[in-house]
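Translate structure to sequence.
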């Protein structure tokens, strides 16, 4: 399955008054990591793949995380992101955030490929993943 690793620095705005990362910020890091991985796999920015495939996005329907060790302002962390499952219209992602090689946070996401609802453009509905996208998500390491 597809995987990608990126490095990022913990910024002041990521931290709470105790000086450690405020937990919702990890979910933002994971969201960015998912987008970076898909952009790399498809060879285009998110704005372009939204247009090319004519869909509204890949929102979260389930997420969870386990927090093992804290990270702090200035830490360089590595986030390994992997596709672990592809369904008809959904896919599951795993994230492993490490600090100096130690697992700090692990998380999962389930996302659904959606389009605008034909009867009400304010709503969305699940759409089968395009075969080209499934092929890219289920390939070896990117």
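Result:
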């Amino acid at each position: 399955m597809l995987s990608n690793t990126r490095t990022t620095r913990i910024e002041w705005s990521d931290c709470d008054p105790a000086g450690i990362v405020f937990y919702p910020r990890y979910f933002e890091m994971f969201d960015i990591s998912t987008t970076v991985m898909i952009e790399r796999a498809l060879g285009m920015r998110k704005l372009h793949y939204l247009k090319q495939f004519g869909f509204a996005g890949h929102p979260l329907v389930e997420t969870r995380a386990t927090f093992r060790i804290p990270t702090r302002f200035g830490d360089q962390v590595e986030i390994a992101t992997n596709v672990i499952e592809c369904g008809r219209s959904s896919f599951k992602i795993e994230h492993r955030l490490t600090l100096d090689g130690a697992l700090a946070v692990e998380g999962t996401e389930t996302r659904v490929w959606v389009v605008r609802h034909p009867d009400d453009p304010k709503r969305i509905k699940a759409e089968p993943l395009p075969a080209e996208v499934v092929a890219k998500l289920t390939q070896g390491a990117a």
